[in-house]
Amino acid sequence: MNPASPFLETEDAPRVDVSFDGASLSLPDGANLAAALLAVGVEVFRHTPVSGAPRAPFCMMGACFDCLVEVDGVTRQACMMEVSEGLVLTRPQAGEAWE
Predict the structure, then answer these.
(1) Nearest alpha carbon to residue 10 among 24, 26, 31, 38
(2) Across the strands, what pairs with 71?
(3) What is the 8-class DSSP label of residue 58?
(4) Calpha distance 48→34 (Å, rounded)
(5) CA torsion angle for 63, 15, 38, 99 (degrees, to 10)?
(6) Which residues are bridge partners to 68 per DSSP?
């Protein structure tokens, strides 16, 4: 983990359990989901449907769609969501259209 990360300001927040591609993670409750995932070391959020290139959050304000994740079965922008208890996150399948 990068100790200079600006996302570590959430370090003192209460933690909740979520899963990402089957791995259990403890993230700060109410934190920005994309920032929290980056802070715990998730570097690839999805792969592009055309080339399969790995993608991760770029703009952190909902414009680039590089932070797409599947949340409880629905593809959403992680940078536009907050962490909450019990989220089930997976990488979207390549080739699936934005919902």
Answers:
(1) 31
(2) 74, 89
(3) S
(4) 17
(5) -40
(6) 77
To 10 degrees, the CA torsion angle through 59, 35, 10, 28?
140
Where do we find the tokens 């703009």? 59
Q: pTM for the full model?
A: 0.82
Residue percentage of the chain with pLDDT more than 90:
74
Q: 3-state DSSP call for residue 26? A: strand
Residue 67 and residue 39: Cα distance in Å, rounded?
Answer: 14
The SS3 call for residue 78 is helix
User: 23: which 2 tokens?
Assistant: 């791995």
Per-residue model confidence as pLDDT tens digits over 6-52: 555 566 789 999 999 999 999 999 999 999 999 999 999 999 988 99
Residue 19 confidence (pLDDT) = 96
CA distance 16 to 44: 21
Taking alpha carbons only, the member of 49, 52, 51 closest to residue 75 is 49
